[in-house]
Write a structure and sequence with these properties.
Its cofactor is Zn(2+). This protein is of the alpha+beta class. Helix 21 runs antiparallel to helix 22 and helix 29 (about 870-895) packs across helix 35. Residues about 1-55 have low confidence and may be disordered.
């Protein structure tokens, strides 16, 4: 999600993308909810009734004491969790039973969230649309879309709202306390006292409206932000598969419905049903409130008591409880259809299969943790049974995104899924799955493989995340939603110790779990999916019939009312809001830049090395970058593949299984990334580099460097069968999910029309890379590819073209440098090669990547000035202003796209984009009319909108950075802390006159170097509607 471009994330059920890191059942929307005002006479439950008696704690000084009451909140439980250096406080509001979980931790990035258990009873998307409407104005802030308006009145590090399968959460985070209190007021008023205006329902949910609202004779169509969002979501096959897996393995309760909304069911939602749902499910007794960080929790308790909870009474919220799924007596098989993906593999291989098993109750914390570890042992890496038996035989494109263990639902699940396989291989997959389970149950696992999984988990506990508070919230939400013990769930070290103890006492511990949960489990779903070439046509026909059914019920009076309502909505959307009602920071609140540790530059064995001494929790982080600009064009195009497979091929001294085992036992893994970096001073040249990123516990640093040395000196590309499998999995991986990131691909496609560096970026990261890889593999033998990758490896790791960076603690720094020196001693040196290439700018052009999906992703890119040019911060402020004042109101609110915005990158490319957009040429026209709008609406650029736009930029500039990544901008771009502070100061000093000058200089006349790009369905009238020639990529 691009902050400021999209309102919410509807969380699709997908175990592999669980946040630790995200069908046509016809049920009438319930409209007979009981009014809660009649049941307020019951007394709040006691702590015993809630199953949470005061917890006995050790003698430690705490800010709040168990059993005491603070602003109406009784403190029920206090615990210190040493592994995360935090103290957990559990409060419960005595009048309503509302639980508040406060995490006190020395972390400047503070978090707040209001969570509700929202169980859908149909697929109209009611909880999802309510989430949107709640943020469209409230009693205290009767401003249309205060959420979007606060994006630029805040320096939040995160602001969003999310609808999951059975919950809705409203989280934000910020490092500024004034900002924190402002956003608390906005969010609390939004959820407890929203306006829920009917016209916001029409805008955000769905409406029947004339295609051209000013033409009474134009046909009636369905519009709406969520409606278009979900059309986009259901155009992605991976999402369709994940959603159907959830619906079919839990067929008896709320999970059988689509919480985000099925596009063909959304138009069945009535506005009154949504209002009634809010009264019941957003009651404080059904809420859970989370706060995290350094800020005073007593202020939060007082605010809740005085303004939102004291006039409420307890209600029994058992109506929202999710019961366990009744277990099946026989396994089930379900087959579904999907769209033909023209960017995917051949039609005969565009099939997917998943075998899913229902596991344990999510609230059984130790059991769920152990099943999670067991799942990793079964599927993770080349030493796991399923990888060996399902992936290495190479009859598929590898695991699909549903693979893994998930605790996102009341009952946890384990899934193994494959993508890009033939229908005739479904049977083979099932047979291999069964055989793998039986063999694992009988033979057990290699102890080192199990230990490598546990080590990786332990290392992740030490790894510091700048968004720890948000991560903790997202990891805990599902468990908390089912009344699980979220505090005990933080004691991961205890759970690991408990598991190790169980394994040591019973050598068949995991084997017995496999017998119980895998071999003898009848609650097993096999879901298969195959493409239907008529899938999109069938959806369009169903949508057309839905509209026709609704139109048949209309007489002339109702049709006239729809026309008039469309005009009223248009006026409603254009009306000016009194944003003075909203809180806003001042310049004094944000003037000081964040302080970062000093970077030291040393020449270590003739290698420029950046050193940062910083508290890293006993971890050393190492990055090294090799300039590869001198590679040939073909070799450069193969670098993304090279980066993907190099650590999976094995070395001279270790086969790939042994090497993977050593990596996981001693390090956090080796990540290879290709970087194309333009000169941020003048954008006249660029360089190409490959960066290796790894980290390890301090006591494993010698082994980390030894393994890195082994890999880059002795990697082998002689196993053609393994490489063939890795290549096919890689192509399958990059081909999946294009639509879900369609705006990013569209911006890359537009940039590729601006300059040759942009064209190369698209060939390395964009849709063009997918096409290149397919064609290259088709025309080149695997043996030849082995030879080409070996040649690349012999050229890339040149000590003369290397730079290094080490982030570690001050006390360990001498040891880290000593081990680093030994690592450098063995690296080959064969002279400096070409280190940069000149950038050439291109004539304007337009291109479309045709996709058989029902929405568009549009982009326009033009060259302006790079990061260190004096006008760059002005253009960055302008991009924020355009997003908030022009693009979002026109493209999102009025025209129905899910998201839209503008941005400028460090290379000086200024981009416009839209996301899940029902329009294409209409949106491109809006991009083109930017200058016209700016000149016609000069009054919009006032001191307040200027300051708000600066705050939007500060959200990005002042974002928290993990200890392991401090100094990354200098390492990649040679942007120093002094450069950064100068840039930040210039940005804050931008005036209205500066903006006006930038508007004239960069938008007053059409840029000499621009490009346009659309990802979306065929448009036969594209050239006619745009008056441009288009390159069409089918």
């Amino acid at each position: 999600m691009l902050k400021g471009g999209m309102l919410s994330r509807w969380k699709m059920w997908s175990p592999q993308y669980k946040i630790l890191r995200n069908h046509l059942i016809n049920f009438k929307s319930v409209s007979t909810y009981k009014n809660i005002s009649g049941v307020n006479t019951k007394q709040p439950k006691s702590p015993r009734q809630f199953g949470c008696m005061p917890h006995v704690t050790k003698k430690r000084k705490y800010k709040y004491e168990e059993g005491k009451t603070y602003h109406g909140f009784q403190c029920e439980r206090v615990e210190h969790i040493s592994e995360f250096e935090l103290t957990s406080y559990t409060f419960r509001y005595e009048r309503t039973g509302t639980e508040l979980w406060h995490i006190d931790r020395n972390d400047s990035n503070n978090v707040f969230s209001i969570n509700f258990r929202t169980t859908p009873f149909d697929s109209t998307g009611l909880p999802h649309i309510l989430e949107h409407l709640s943020l469209c104005g409230s009693q205290k802030y009767p401003v249309r879309d205060p959420f979007f308006k606060m994006l630029n009145r805040s320096v939040a590090t995160f602001m969003n709202a999310m609808t999951g399968p059975d919950y809705t959460i409203y989280p934000f985070s910020t490092m500024n306390e004034i900002d924190f209190r402002n956003l608390q007021h906005i969010y609390l008023d939004a959820v407890f006292r929203p306006n829920l205006a009917y016209f916001d329902f029409l805008q955000e949910g769905w409406r029947l409206e004339n295609k051209d609202i000013f033409d009474k004779q134009s046909k009636l169509v369905i519009k709406g932000v969520v409606y278009n969002e979900m059309k986009g979501a259901f155009s992605e096959n991976a999402q369709v598969f994940s959603q159907n897996l959830l619906n079919n393995i839990f067929p008896d309760h709320t999970y059988r419905h689509v919480s985000g909304g099925n596009p063909l069911e959304i138009p069945k939602l009535a506005y009154n049903d949504l209002v009634e749902f809010h009264k019941k499910y957003y009651h404080p007794s059904n809420a859970r409130i989370y706060s995290y960080g350094l800020f005073d929790a007593s202020k939060t308790l007082a605010l809740l008591d005085e303004e939102y909870l004291s006039d409420q009474s307890w209600v029994d919220n058992s109506y929202s409880l999710i019961r366990q799924q009744e277990r099946w007596t026989q396994p089930r098989l379900v087959h579904i259809s999907s769209r033909l993906d023209n960017m995917g593999t051949t039609i005969d291989r565009q099939n997917q299969i998943a075998i899913a098993l229902l596991m344990c109750d999510a609230t059984n914390i130790q059991e769920s943790f152990e099943l999670h570890v067991l799942s990793e042992v079964l599927i993770r890496g080349p030493n796991s049974p399923f990888y060996k038996n399902l992936i290495e035989p190479n009859f598929s494109g590898g695991y699909n995104q549903t693979t893994g263990y998930s605790s996102d639902t009341k009952d946890t699940t384990f899934v193994v899924g494959l993508q890009d396989l033939r229908v005739e291989d479904f049977k083979k997959c099932i047979e291999i799955f069964d055989k793998t389970i039986i063999n694992s149950m009988n033979d057990g696992f290699d102890s080192q493989h199990v230990e490598s999984v546990l080590h990786n988990l332990e290392l992740s506990l030490k790894h510091q995340n700048p968004n720890f508070g948000n991560t903790l919230l997202f990891n805990s939400t599902a468990l908390w939603n089912h009344d699980g013990d979220v505090v005990s769930n933080l004691r991961v070290s205890d759970m690991i110790s408990g598991l190790r103890e169980s394994i040591s006492q019973n050598k068949k511990y995991f084997q017995e779990k496999i017998e119980k949960y895998f071999a003898n489990n009848n609650h097993r779903l096999t879901l298969t999916m195959s493409p239907d070439e008529a899938y999109e046509d069938k959806f369009k026909q169903a949508e057309l019939e839905l509209v026709e059914q609704k139109v048949k019920l209309l007489d002339e009076v109702k049709i006239e009312k729809i026309y008039e309502r469309g005009l009223i909505l248009d006026s409603y959307q254009k009306a000016e809001s009194n944003t003075d009602l909203l809180p806003c920071l001042t310049m004094n609140d944000v003037r000081d830049p964040p302080k970062w540790p000093k970077l030291f530059i040393q020449n270590v064995q003739n290698v420029r090395t950046q050193i940062c001494k910083v508290p890293t929790n006993e971890i050393t982080y190492f990055k090294c970058m090799f300039n590869i600009t001198g590679l040939s064009h073909e070799e450069t195009q193969l670098m993304p593949l090279f980066c993907n497979v190099i650590s999976a091929m094995g070395t001279t001294n270790y086969n790939y299984r042994e090497f993977d085992k050593h990596i996981l036992l001693k390090t956090g893994g080796f990540d290879f990334k290709l970087h194309l970096i333009e000169d941020v001073r003048d954008s006249k040249s660029y360089s190409l580099s490959v960066m290796i990123n790894t980290h390890a516990l301090n006591n494993n640093v010698p082994e980390m460097f030894a393994l890195c040395q082994e890999l880059i000196k002795n990697v082998r590309f002689d196993d053609s069968e393994r490489l063939k499998m890795l290549i096919e999995n890689y192509i399958s991986y990059i081909s999946v999910g294009v639509a879900s990131s369609g705006h990013l691909y569209a911006m890359l496609g537009a940039t590729s029309q601006v300059c040759d560096a942009g064209k190369l970026k698209s060939l390395l990261y964009g849709v063009d890379h997918i096409d290149f890889m397919k064609n290259f593999v088709h025309s080149t033998s695997t043996v030849d590819i082995c030879d080409k990758l070996s040649t690349i490896a012999s050229k890339v790791f040149n000590k003369d073209n290397m730079r290094g960076a080490i982030n570690t603690t001050q006390s360990y720094e001498p040891s880290a440098i000593s081990n680093y020196e030994k690592f450098l001693e063995s690296l080959p040196t064969f002279g400096k090669t070409q280190t940069s290439r000149n950038i050439h700018y291109l004539d304007p052009s337009c291109q479309q990547y045709v996709m058989n999906i029902p929405v568009n992703y549009c982009a326009k890119a033009l060259f302006t000035v790079p990061y260190l040019h004096q006008d760059h911060p002005t253009l960055r402020v302008l991009a924020k202003l355009l997003s908030a004042k022009y693009l979002l109101p026109v493209i999102r609110e009025k025209n129905g796209a899910y998201g839209a915005g503008a941005k400028i990158s460090s290379d000086g490319i200024f981009s416009f984009y839209s996301y899940r957009d029902p329009n294409s040429t209409k949106t491109l026209n809006a991009f083109d009319e930017t200058y016209k709008w700016l000149r016609a609406n000069q009054n919009v650029i006032d001191q307040q909108s200027l300051f708000e736009s600066k705050l939007g930029v500060l959200q990005q500039l002042d974002t928290p950075i993990a200890p392991g990544n401090i100094g990354i901008d200098y390492f990649l771009y040679e942007v120093s802390q002094e450069d950064f502070e100068s840039y930040r100061s210039r940005m804050l000093s931008v005036t209205i006159d500066d903006l006006q000058c930038a508007i004239e200089n960069y938008f007053g006349k059409e840029s000499m170097h621009y490009g346009k790009c659309i990802l979306g369905p065929v448009n036969a009238n594209l050239e006619l509607e745009t008056s441009h020639k288009w390159i069409i990529n089918n």
